[in-house]
Design brief:
This protein has 611 residues and is an alpha+beta fold. It has two domains: 326 residues, DD-peptidase/beta-lactamase superfamily (Beta-lactamase), CATH 3.40.710.10; 186 residues, Calycin beta-barrel core domain (Lipocalin). It contains 20 helices and 20 strands. The strands form four sheets. It has a ten-stranded antiparallel sheet. It has a six-stranded antiparallel sheet with strand order 2-1-10-9-8-7, sandwiched between helices. Strand 15 and strand 16 form a beta hairpin. Helix 1 runs parallel beside helix 18 and helix 3 packs parallel to helix 8.
């Protein structure tokens, strides 16, 4: 019965989404989980070395980063490469920086799997145990017979067949109860069906059997020995870590976890090699099998991790391009954070496979001769990486005369505003009702932190930067953006949740000679970047909102989740949403536009007409 009720709730959620009623889309209120957002360098634990010292040319690594940077199908945020346990290259794609933790999405599952392995080692759990026995105090007498067959192993390898999925979690407060009172699409153990609620229930099992939260359980057993500052892991409405998503890690921490697996679960702690994760558990976890029932694009799956396209390789994988790729044959670990428009596998994984997979050149097991020219070129490339190329400083053509002119001629004054910036400085616009806001829609959906539409926007300019203040019904946030090629970092607060941002802006004119301000605001702990275009004309401003990753991708993901649960009602809603008559409604939500009018005070000052 609860399964039918949950179907109706998800259908209601979908209808509210289509109508744009985002503030009332979920039955439980938003509660902030991230109260601060500060840069903190990693605690250490990973030595550094040059590529040549571990048998790889710096030029080869430089070409790898250059290809990642030039691929226009991905938006990489950070990359760290390890060989023989040493960091040989790290690249931060501005405005992103390794000092901030990053949303892991489904990569979180692999860490949940580690906790389960520790619980088994501690004698507190067996993979053969049935979930109805573990939660005997929560199961209903009137439950599906198939639920009785689900074991811990079925949760680990995604073969439980449970209908209750991520879409259902958005409308239910008690996820354990909803899971246990749901039904299965097939007999548990017979088919593969990727579902994050399997991982959530593993998290709930760790909490129940250990008597502590998942984070509390992992802190002395994993985080502290690895030198990982205790990370944020978002919880469900009942206070249990989400397990399948919601974890934030720095890229160095991601690399450490991959290196831990590469070392068979062993780590040097206080001068002694210590077994943190049981070696036999890792061997079982990385033994990926080709799952049944997953269509033509099947990939091997183990215990909460995927295989990778190289001999013996595997990966921790998260939505929008979060990877930890372990390459045992190369003795390498590669960690990647991204805001890729693709949901799981993207071009960055393909590039990694090409450079470091089975068909890549053989790397030397002995150090190569030092090559300072190649090493300097690599460092130069790593210091000029940008997530969005449009935000990078414009390169001046290299020439002898140009270089001489730059040395001899006086530099343009940088302590004064351009005429266009001076004309826009101090303007305030009241905006028409709409869905556009500072926060990207994907991020609103992921965090359940939905915003009202923009009501007012203020502009202030200084040499080399601008400050834009955004108003909606609940919040006021000022974003400082670099206009000189250097991103400005800061924070914004939305419903008491703090988000680190890095912003750049470009002030140009369009074909009608109207001033145009392009703003790029990256939410540095997430895959999301909000892009806003302001076109000024007369007393008005036209505002267009867009974002990366593409909202179209995110809505497709939502519809697939709804259709993937096997519920007829939800499929009908999905099909209705995809109909032509709903296209305009969805476009107004996912690609919002609005107009603003100068306030009376600003109009009285007099504004040049440039229509």
């Amino acid at each position: 019965m609860l399964d039918v009720i949950s179907q109706m709730k998800v259908s209601d959620l979908m209808l509210k989404f289509v109508r744009g009623d985002l503030r009332h889309i979920t039955p439980y209120p938003f509660f902030p989980q991230k109260k601060s957002s500060t840069q903190q360098p990693p605690l250490g634990g990973l030595p550094h070395a040059t590529p040549e010292s571990v048998g790889i040319s710096s030029e080869y690594i430089r070409k790898f980063f250059e290809e990642l940077d030039q691929c226009d199908q991905i938006q990489v945020h950070g990359v760290m490469i390890l060989r023989h346990g040493k960091v040989i290259a790290q690249g931060d794609f501005q405005p992103y920086t390794a000092a901030y933790p990053h949303m892991m999405f489904s990569l979180s599952k692999s860490i949940t799997g580690m906790a389960v392995g520790m619980l088994v080692r501690d004698g507190l759990l067996s993979t053969d145990e049935k979930i109805v026995d573990i939660f005997s105090d929560r199961v209903s007498f009137l439950r599906s017979p198939r639920i009785n067959s689900i074991t811990v192993l079925h949760l680990l390898n995604m073969t439980s067949g449970i209908k209750f999925n991520e879409a259902g979690s958005a409308v239910e407060k008690d996820w354990v109860r909803a899971f246990l009172q749901s039904d299965c699409l097939y007999e548990p153990g017979s088919e593969f069906s990727y579902n994050s609620m399997n991982s959530y229930l593993l998290s709930a099992i760790v909490c129940k059997r250990s008597g502590m939260s998942l984070t509390e359980y992992l802190t002395p057993r994993l985080y502290e020995p690895l030198g990982i500052q205790t990370p944020l892991w978002e919880t469900c409405p009942m206070g249990i870590e989400k397990g399948g998503w919601g974890l934030y890690l720095r890229i160095a921490d991601m690399a450490k976890l991959g290196q831990l697996y590469l070392q068979g679960g062993r780590w040097m702690v206080n001068g002694k090699m210590t077994q943190l994760v049981p070696e036999d558990w890792i061997q079982k976890s990385v033994k990926t099998e080709l799952p049944a029932g997953d269509g033509d694009n099947r990939r091997g799956y183990g215990y909460q991790l995927w295989d990778f396209g190289a001999q013996g390789a595997y990966q921790f994988n998260g939505l929008f391009g979060q990877y930890v790729i372990v390459l045992p044959q190369r003795d390498m670990v590669i960690a990647v954070t991204s805001g890729s428009p693709h949901l799981f596998t993207d071009c960055s994984a393909e590039i990694i496979e090409r450079y470091f997979g089975d068909n890549a050149p053989t790397f030397s097991e002995k150090p190569l001769p030092n090559n300072l020219r190649h090493l300097r070129a690599l460092k130069n490339t790593l210091s000029h990486l940008y997530t969005i190329h449009e935000t990078a400083p414009k390169k001046e053509p290299a020439s002898f005369l140009g270089d001489l002119a730059r040395r001899v001629l006086p530099r343009p004054a940088t302590d004064r505003l351009s005429p266009t910036a001076s004309a826009l400085n101090g303007r305030t616009y009241r905006t028409e009702p709409g869905y556009g806001s500072l926060m990207p829609l994907i991020l609103q959906c992921v965090t359940n932190n939905f915003c009202s539409g923009l009501t007012q926007v203020d502009f202030a300019f200084e040499p080399g930067s601008c400050c834009i203040t955004f108003y909606d019904e609940d919040t006021v946030n000022m974003v400082e953006a670099g206009m000189d090629g250097t991103p400005r970092t800061g924070t914004v607060t939305i419903h008491d949740e703090v988000y680190a941002v890095g912003a750049t802006a470009r002030l140009t004119t369009d074909e009608d000679d109207r001033p145009v301000l392009k703003l790029f605001v990256s939410f540095l702990e997430t895959p999301c970047t909000r892009m806003i275009k302001f076109v000024f004309y007369g007393n008005r401003v036209y505002i267009r909102f867009n974002e990366l990753p593409s909202v179209k991708t995110a809505t497709e993901m939502l519809f697939n989740l709804v259709g993937g649960s096997g519920n007829t009602i939800e499929k009908m809603i999905r099909d209705a949403v995809r109909s032509q008559r709903m296209t305009d409604r969805l476009n107004s939500l996912v690609l919002p536009r609005t107009k603003g009018t100068l306030t009376q005070r600003e109009r009285e000052k007099g504004v040049p007409q440039n229509e």
